[in-house]
Amino acid sequence: MKSTLTPIGVRDYSPEETEALSRLKQEILAQLSSSGYRRVLTPSLEFYETIRDGLGPKLAKQCIKFTDSHGQTLVLRPDHTAAIARSLSTRYSDESLPIRLAYVDPVFRKDPQRGETEEWQAGVEHIGDESIAADVAVIDQCIQCLKACGITDFGIDLGHTDVLASYSEDEQAALLDGDYTILDNLPKRGGIECLDEFPALKSLYQDIQSSGYIDDRVQANLGLVKDPSYYSGMIFDVYVPGYGKRLGSGGRYDGLLSRFGRDLPAVGFALDLGAIQEYLA
Amino acid sequence: MSPLVIAVAKGYLWTAYQECLAAQGIELDPKDTDSRKLSVRDRSGNFEFLIVRSTDVPVYVQEGAADLGIVGQDVLAENPADVIDLFPLPFAGCRLVLAALKGAAKTVPQNARVATKYIHLTQRYFYEHNTKITPIKLYGAIELAPSRGLSDYVTDLVVTGNTLKENGLVELETIFTSTATLIANPMSLKSKYTDISSYYTQLREHYAS
Asked: Residue B153 burial by CB count (10 A; 0-12/13-18/19+): exposed, middle or buried?
């Protein structure tokens, strides 16, 4: 008999699983919409030549590529932020800033172990506001979305691209590769006391503290690093104790939109709905 | 409080690591370690050890089934995983070497057949040397391959190199030098930071003295 299985990295959803996923999507969209974020759709197909400018080197390698009928290389949408940044080059020119957009759709990537994958993500793009207040608002929005999903024991680790930049070139490459053996100590994690050398992260952390609605679940982490060719300021990761996978992540990427011809600062986050669903199950 | 879960490669690495644990005052019940139990808690209950195949250690840690792992650097390099490599441990030292029968060319010719358990590391090495080889994946008794005409060269893990010599093979080059290393799940490094940080410091201080 012919195989009736799907590729490993994708899956069917039963009516019950579909219902559970839909409920998550609705809760998140209701939360985002109440805060002024409007949902957008981008196509599942993009030109590789175009979208590649909005991807870091790691994500560019993870693209699922194929050739269209004219010989051009297409990719299945590898990233929402890059696709929305691309769409900004031809739209929203008359809108007042900040532009608040939301998405709830899958991304398609090659995973070294699981092959070609489809992963549902929900997230926001907060465009045209470079203030710390925008950083805080986006982290708060992420927290509200987690709560809307019924997750209360989450933690958020907060970092900044300044921290990675303070290391030597060799150390930066090692840290991005998950190699801490080059360091003499484990990078610090904790509260305001760790942050004297990093004024930008310190003032962000202070603002988060004084905003009151974010409690001690937010910790500063000097070991948190993300691709510096993409991120340009605040970065964060979402986790829950006892579950080994990341539930989401976010950060600021002020240089990204200019690669598509709109020089606007931007900050956002994406939640991994598959991980959230697995955790809640 | 939930214990720190540490996946450890079974065999000589687990044996060597038990000496390290004993020296640090982390006590195991001999009844447990002598048995075939796959998971063992220390007396304090602060640590739980999962004794698994070496190649499975990065998988346990990446997936969060263990917070930490103790595994050979060779295994980690051969099976890349989304984990944090924290600290090299000075035991379970070994080398991945290139070897051949006496009289074989020292420079590996294009399209040579190379038998190995370590396909990834071997291919990376030859790629860096601009040599295209035909790898032959074997799971054991690599030393036998050249004399039986199965391959022209081998890459194999050695501690002393005696097994290679006994099988008439000559070491040509060291491809990779390895010891054990401590790895962590990136999310555990957040949610259990305090516990992991204090164990990390304890290990560093142990090996510094």
From this structure: buried
Contact A181 B85 (CB under 8 A): yes
Assigned token pair, B126: 């030859």
Q: Which two tokens stand for residue A19?
A: 């219902």
How far is residue A172's CA from residue A182's CA, in Å, rounded to a whole number? 10
Q: In which residue ranges of chain B is pLDDT below 70? A: 1
pLDDT interval class at A214 (50, 70, 90): low
**Cβ(B13)–Cβ(B54) under 8 Å?**
yes
Q: What is the DSSP letter of B109?
A: P
Q: Do B181 and A219 touch (CB under 8 A)?
A: no
Asked whether the beta carbons of residue A244 and residue B185 sit closer than 8 angstroms, the reply is yes
Residue given tokens 């980690």 in the structure block: B76
ipTM metric: 0.87
Q: Which residues pair with A221 in a beta bridge?
A: A189
Chain B residues lying within 8 Å of A219, measured CB to CB? 190, 193
Residue A1, pLDDT > 90, answer: no
Tell me whether residues B86 and A181 touch, CB distance under 8 A: yes
d(Cα B181, Cα B85) in Å, to the nearest integer?
7
User: Angle of helix B193-208 relative to helix B12-23, nearest 10 degrees?
Assistant: 90
pLDDT at A3: 86
Chains A and B form CB pairs within 8 A to the count of 56
CA A221 to each of CA A235, B43, B163, B202: distance values in angstroms, whole numbers, following the listed order: 10, 32, 47, 21
> A242 and B186 in contact by Cβ < 8 A?
no
**C-alpha–C-alpha distance, residues A142 and A135, integer Å:** 11
Query: pTM of the entire structure?
Result: 0.89
CB under 8 A, 24+ apart: contacts of B50-56:
B50/B5, B50/B6, B50/B7, B50/B8, B51/B8, B51/B10, B51/B14, B52/B7, B52/B8, B52/B9, B52/B10, B53/B9, B53/B10, B54/B9, B54/B10, B54/B11, B54/B13, B55/B79, B56/B7
Query: How far is B84 from chain A, CA to nearest CA, in Å?
Result: 5
